[in-house]
Hints:
Elements lengths: L2 H4 L8 H8 L4 E6 L7 E5 L5 E6 L4 H21 L8 H13 L6 H11 L10 H8 L7 E3 L8 E4 L2 E8 L4 E5 L5 E4 L4 E4 L3
Parallel strand pairs: 1-3
Antiparallel strand pairs: 2-3, 4-9, 5-6, 5-9, 6-7, 7-8
Helix pairs in contact: 3-4, 4-5
Pfam families: SprT-like
Protein name: SprT-like family
GO biological process, one term: response to stress
Amino acid sequence: MSIETLKKYLPENTLPFLKNWFGPYFIHIKITRERNSKLGDYRKLRDNSHEITINSTLEPQLFFFVLTHELAHMLSFEKFGHRIAPHGSEWKQTFRNMLVESISIYHQDLQKIILEFAKSPKANFMASPDLVRYFRLKDNAGGHVFVEELEPHNEFIYNKQRYILIEKLKKNYLCRNLDNGKTYSFRGLASVQKLNP
């Protein structure tokens, strides 16, 4: 896929950054269906080209953020060699520099969150509560909320099963499955469909 073809997935004015980062490398970019386990990934192919996959359902700013994350893998491996840790200090420095360089691409209310994240980039998007909250706000329109926004005794649906919030633990939330009676611990940033007001 060419950089030009990527335009429909990206915010405006990203192409100069991508052309600079792509440089002389041959990169296969595959747009995939939504995957719950990951937003994107990177791997080097046997012919020394590179492959990046990204979920097609990501909104443009998140798509660009994930693409930047994956390109940081490629650039750090190319610069420092393939013996470095995938999310080690070399990748963090590369990703940090790319985020700061392209900060103007992001909406103003997101720039502060990105710059804070860039101080110590995390390997997993879900490890940054501020980013998760920012990019999941649109879910609220369909009745989706974070578990941390629920009150005790609120009922909700998660993975097509009904639950009730019992109480907040130290970091997580204790909930009972109303279909099988078992209790489960939920992360505060789990996205669920609220059932009762």
